[in-house]
Amino acid sequence: MEDLIYLDNAATAWPKPPNVYEFAIDFYRKTGVNPGRSGFDMAIEAGNIIEDLRVRLTKFFGGDENVPERLCFSYNATDALNLIIPGLLVSGDHVISTNVEHNSVIRPINCMVRDQGVEATYVPFNKQGYVDPDDIKYALKPNTKLVIVNHGSNVLGTVQPLKEIGQICRDKGVLFAIDSSQTAGVVPIDMKDMNIDVLAFTGHKSLMGFTGIGGLCVREHLEIKQIRAGGTGVRSAYPYHLAEYPFRMEYGTPNMIGVASLLAGQDFIEEEGMANIHAREMKLARKLVEGFRQIDGVIIYCWENFDNRLSTVTINIEGMEAGDVGIMLDVDFDVATRTGLHCAPLVHEQLGLIPVHGGVRFSVGAFNVESDIDTAIEAVKEIAGRVKR
């Protein structure tokens, strides 16, 4: 494990910053109780932690700072998207999404199409891996209710033009939602400037939190239908789930160690500087891509340029299954990647990679170093050299 070169940060950022481990564990030892349910000091302190994080993340995402209670917590982005999509769409509505989406968007939409009479359109990406905002505009219909876009592709690393898409949605009176799972923490997001109505986030990637924490940030003008019910810790005699935020979108006991990890993650991002983190990751990604370009038989997908990108690189080696390459990287070289379809089947379908079972994804994180990249390049070179051509 000590020799492992971890290049699967698009799945989960690892390791976490030291301050995240220290703060979260210390908090949970001293204040790991239920917030907002009791009046004793520990419960009040736990409640203060969660409310402080609402304020910080609302500002971080460019949400409406006068209503931080509209920053609501969930298990992860998938959980948040399963509140957003069924909470906004009804029978007869049309939704537009894209081929760069993760299954956390694709599957809830498809279930709404199958079960609720919703209509859906998926817009393809271009040869460089970007969605053309005009394609969104041309896909609009009189009954289009929602456009939902993955900000950063977990396969291609491309960052989509949210501001342009958001302006089209605003001009046409269509709601605009985004999945920020890959971008939150490395790429600036301003919901007001980008005309984003609701944003889903996860904590365990570049926000540097633990697994099992995520949420949604809802603009002041938007109401999402409440589709679950349960305990809130307040107004217990009321027979229905509460309509006001954050209770409207939150159910039961929150993941407080996850909340604490996210709060400490905000400290790390502010101290390091988000632009600095992204620049370091992209420097290593550039080195990785340029190294792969020198290897015969390596195919790199949608990396013609280095602009508007994340540090995620997907490749294949001609004549080899992606899964086999991943096993060799792990067993022979201690390089951890992810192979397969990456929960993003429409990307691989458009690229024609379903027959070869997807690709091999290398995703650089905040704690990778140049020697990690050197080893990965040499490993791919050696594996590619095993193929007879």
UniProtKB/TrEMBL annotation:
InterPro entries: Aminotrans_V_dom (IPR000192), Aminotrans_V_PyrdxlP_BS (IPR020578), Cys_dSase-rel_unknwn_funct (IPR010969), Cysteine_dSase (IPR016454), PyrdxlP-dep_Trfase (IPR015424), PyrdxlP-dep_Trfase_major (IPR015421), PyrdxlP-dep_Trfase_small (IPR015422)
Domain of life of the source: Bacteria
Keyword set, alphabetical order: Pyridoxal phosphate
Signal peptide as annotated in the record: none
Sequence ranges assigned to domain Aminotransferase class V in this UniProt record: 5-374
Entries under Gene3D superfamilies matching the protein: Aspartate Aminotransferase, domain 1, Type I PLP-dependent aspartate aminotransferase-like (Major domain)
PANTHER family named in the record: CYSTEINE DESULFURASE (PTHR43586), ISOPENICILLIN N EPIMERASE (PTHR43586:SF4)
Protein name: cysteine desulfurase
